[in-house]
Amino acid sequence: MHQRRLIFCCLLITQYCFSQKQLPADTPSVFMPGIVSDEFGNRDMAISPAGDEMFYTLQYGGGRICSVIMCCKKINGKWTKPQVASFSGQYNDLEPAFSPDGSKLYFASVRPISGISAKDHDLWFVTKQNGVWANPVNMGAPVNSSKDEFYPSIAKSGTIYFTREMDGKDEDIVMCRFVNNAYDTAVSLPNAINNMGAEFNAFVDADEQFVIFTAYKRKENFGSGDLYISKKDNNGIWKEAINLGNKVNGQGLTYCPFVTPDKKQFFFVSSRGGFRSPFKKQQRIEELKKQMHSPLNGWDNIYWMTTETILK
Hints:
This protein is mainly beta. 8% of the residues lie in helices and 39% in strands. The strands form 6 sheets. Strands 2, 3, 4, 5 and 6 form a 5-stranded antiparallel β-sheet that branches. A 4-stranded antiparallel β-sheet has the order 1-23-22-21, with no helix packed on it. The longest helix is centred in the N-terminal third of the chain and has 18 residues, at 2-19.
C-alpha cells in the first residue's frame, strides 16, 4: 500500500511539473527536476516565441562524451516528455537559440561540413520542413571561422551575437551585423562587456537593450564564473556590466542565461548544491547512490526565476 501511494504521489508531481502551472519565484529553483534537470548535465535553455517548444542540451561526461539537443512540445498546456531533437543525436550539438520570429533555430555543433570532419565548433541553423526542424545549414564566414564559435543570440535587427575563441585570451562576445542581406565582419563588444579575461555565453535582448553574459574569474565574482548584465544608455552605448549578485551567482560556474520573449522568466545553468566530499558524517552506499542519481549530484542543472530582480 505504501509503495502504491508513493508511485501515485510521484505521478502527481510529474503531471504538475509537466503542466508548468507553477510560475518561478524571485529566487532560483531547479527547473522541472527529474524531467529536464536530471542526474546528467543539462544546460542551454531556449523556448520558442510562441511558447510551444522548448529545447535544451543534455550532456554526458561534461559534453566530451556526448552532447545532444533535446526537445519538448507544449500540448494542451503541458510539456511532453523530452526527446532527442529531430536534427540532433548523431554529432555533438549544443546551445539552441530561436530567431525572434521563431522561423529558425540556431545551435553550435562539430558536425561535418560537406562530408569533411569539423575541427572546431561552428554555428548552424535549421528551419521547419513539414512541421519538423530539419536540414542543418552551416552559417559560413564571416560568422564562422577557424576558431570555435558558440552560443548564438539573434536580435530583431538580424544582428547575431555569439562567443568566439580569441588569440591572446580565452573568449570574447562578438557580433556580426546583418546588412544588405549579408553578415558583416565580426567585432568584439566594447570594454564595458569584454575585458582581458574570458567572457562568453551572452543572451542579448531581441531589441538589443540588455545583454546577460558570463565573465570568468573577475575579482568581484562569487564563483569561478558569474553572470553579469549590461544595459544600453539613452545614446545606445553599452553601460559598464554589473554582477547579478549572490542570489543568482554562487559556488562554481553560473552560465547559459536565457530570458523568455515576454521577459517574465529568467533561466540559467549552475552546478550549485553539488554533492561532494568531505561530508558531515560517514555515508552509506545507499545514501551515496541516491545522491549520485539525483539532480543535485554536482553536474549542471537548469534553474529559473522571475526576471523582475535582474532587470531592475
